[in-house]
Design a protein that fits this description.
Its EC number is 2.7.7.7. Residues 370-389 are annotated as: Disordered. It comes from Calderihabitans maritimus. It is an enzyme of class 2 (transferase). With 514 residues, the chain is of the alpha/beta class. It has a five-stranded parallel sheet, with helices on one face. A three-stranded mixed sheet has the order 8-9-10. Strands 6-7 form a two-stranded parallel ribbon. The protein is elongated and about 120 Å long. It has four domains: 6-174, Rossmann fold (3-Layer(aba) Sandwich); 182-241, Helicase, Ruva Protein, domain 3 (Orthogonal Bundle); 247-368, Zinc Finger, Delta Prime, domain 3; 398-478, 2-Layer Sandwich (GMP Synthetase, Chain A, domain 3). The chain has 22 helices and ten strands. Mean pLDDT is 84; it is low at 365-393 and 483-493.
Length: 514
Amino acid sequence: MGYLALYRQWRPQTFREIVGQEHVTKTLQNALVAKRISHAYLFCGPRGTGKTSTAKVLAKAVNCQERTEGEPCNRCFMCKRITEGSSMDVIEIDAASNRGIDEIRDLREKVKFAPTEGKYKVYIVDEVHMLTTEAFNALLKTLEEPPAHVIFILATTEPHKIPLTILSRCQRFDFHRVSNQLIMDQVSRIVKAYQIEITPEALNLIARAASGGLRDALSILDQCMAFCSNKIEEEDVAELIGSAGESFLFALVDTIIQQRPGEALKLLDEVLQKGKDPRLLLWDLLEHLRNLLVTKVSQNPSALIISTEEMMTKIREQAEKFSLTQLFELIDVFRQYEAEIKWSNQPRLLVELAIIKGIKNVGEVEGAVSTSPKIKSSPGKGVESNSGIKENPQTLTFAEIKQRWPEVLEVVRKTKITVYAFLIEGKVQELKGNTVLVGFNQDCTFHKEKLEEKENRELIEKVLYRVFGRNLTLQCITINSDKPQRESKKSSEDDQLVQKALELFGGSLVEIKD
């Protein structure tokens, strides 16, 4: 026989060998011990989490002649036949290519026949959600009352596409994504068996790239073993999966906090010249920022980030350079572009825009407002905030505030629409020093009170800094409504018209009462 892929060589042969699905294997073992075997099972979950492998182990267990505590022996005739894939009583069906009603009708005819070798005839239907509606309807009656010697095991990655009438007739088991730590442990065991050395950083990168799918991890490892021979390092794994690697991410994020857009774009260009995928770079960058955020807020970040101790030290050091609000701003910017890049024909441009906008927002908004106290500036002198950006030394006038107020409203609208709805009811009244006075009519007291809340007021002050480049304070005031004034003016004008009419035509005023 030719070479078998690692995920086939290391396919679990017992319930004990299935990784990360104890809630499924324990339930099935207990059911086997208690002889409470169902006629239909539904295994659903992400790809590469062990659905088909569990189905084959269950098929062996129900037919095993020497079963112990629910585990197949893997020594008897039936276990060997099923492991080799030569048993006539275990039928695997790919629903993606056998999805029509004719195939299901043929299956209905065959289930009537008794098993030829074992006690049960087991049908494993993979990707069952691909069946047509007519095929599901044809399967319904057989699935509800199958012959006593038949067990159906349906596997799918999309259970929401299966009709409720089918779901209600099956015992459902949800397979979870395998944790990074369990994937790393399994990969370590395999490379040890092949006497191949692998670095902790490479292990971590393989686990992250697998996204909870053990089969994906073993496929990546298979490539690495062919590429690296005796030692697998992080750079080798990054080269194969298209990732830029941790060193690039640390360097890029450093240029962002230091506000060096030119150097950041140069780093990006060097990586893209090596053929890296811009979409994957953005995804990696978001994950790196998530690690920084977790480190910033958690007492024990090592429990939430799967990484080496050396890498955790570097993450902690870089996290200290950021404030929480700076990280919020960066994550928000990259998240927006990450959603857009999937459909873009120019992914590189979007990554560059994300980096430049991230640097701009961190420097202009979060760095100055959230990490430092208010700074009083004297006329004619520029004030430098903690973010390294100097305020505009020119005197800010009320006329400029009034002229650019629509710009302030637009930024607030894009940031938080509810705050915009309150602020739009106000009108800029005056600039007193570094305080912007916004007036509200007496019937807008609710709007004024909402804007005076700390969270909303700070948001507007951040926007003011972003638009005008200096620390400004917002103050909301109540002003008299101009409605009585307008009515008085209108009344005065009416009186003048009446007097003019009396002069021209003569006569006198008469009061008419209803």
